[in-house]
């Protein structure tokens, strides 16, 4: 699951999660997740509240109101402060003090995450990209990834 080296202190902190044979189940038992990209998506798919954070930025708790803007940047918060102990402590305290509300938001986001990033949506996106390449290989090669097909239809 992890190819890099890990210190004994980090392994002790991560405990069973580090060696989890079923990562989605282990994530699903969490009360809160910190991460961006796939980490954020995996947690949201399991109904776990997420604080959008990486080594450069400490962002907000992902809520239905923040979801679209954060999804557009792979859940990497932009123009936010760097994480610090005090900032992380404050963000986690805020999330955990109102955990029931955060869990309701996370459950509501499960549907949106599945709609946008679930297997069906991903297959549809890949088919759309391949179709574009087959129709017009020269221009398709220089294109940036597109929005999900359902968003293209809405536009």
3D architecture notes:
The protein is mainly alpha-helical. Helices cover 58% and strands 7% of the residues. It has nine helices and three strands. A three-stranded mixed beta sheet has the order 1-2-3, with helices on both faces. The radius of gyration is 18 Å and the shape is globular. The N and C termini lie far apart (39 Å).
What's the quick description here?
Helices cover 58% and strands 7% of the residues. The protein has 155 residues and is mainly alpha-helical. The termini are far apart.
Defining traits:
about 160 residues; mainly alpha; three-stranded mixed β-sheet; 9 helices; globular
List strands and helices in order, with pairings.
Layout: H1 8-14, H2 23-28, E1 33-35, H3 37-45, E2 50-53, E3 58-61, H4 64-71, H5 85-97, H6 99-117, H7 119-135, H8 137-141, H9 149-154
Parallel strand pairs: 1-2
Antiparallel strand pairs: 2-3
Helix pairs in contact: 6-7
User: Strand order within the widest sheet?
Assistant: 1-2-3
Query: What's the number of extended β-strand segments?
Result: 3
User: What Rg, in angstroms, do the CA atoms define?
Assistant: 18 Å
What structural class do helix, strand and pairing data support?
mainly alpha
Shape: globular
Mean pLDDT: 82
How many DSSP H or I helices? 9
The run of helices and strands is HHEHEEHHHHHH
Beta strand %: 5-15%
The profile of the biggest β sheet is:
3 strands, mixed
Helix content: 55-70%
Low-confidence residue ranges: none
CA distance, first residue to last residue:
39 Å
């Amino acid at each position: 699951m992890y190819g890099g080296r890990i210190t004994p202190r980090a392994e002790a902190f991560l405990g069973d999660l580090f060696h989890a044979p079923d990562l989605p189940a282990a994530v699903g038992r969490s009360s809160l997740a910190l991460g961006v990209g796939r980490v954020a998506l995996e947690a949201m798919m399991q109904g776990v509240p997420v604080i959008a954070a990486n080594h450069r930025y400490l962002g907000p708790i992902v809520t239905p109101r923040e979801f679209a803007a954060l999804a557009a940047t792979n859940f990497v918060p932009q123009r936010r402060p760097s994480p610090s102990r005090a900032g992380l402590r404050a963000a986690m305290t805020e999330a955990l003090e109102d955990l029931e509300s955060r869990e309701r938001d996370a459950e509501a986001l499960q549907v949106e995450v599945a709609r946008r990033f679930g297997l069906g949506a991903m297959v549809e996106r890949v088919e759309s990209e391949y179709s574009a390449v087959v129709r017009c290989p020269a221009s398709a090669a220089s294109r940036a990834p597109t929005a999900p097909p359902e968003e293209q239809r809405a536009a």
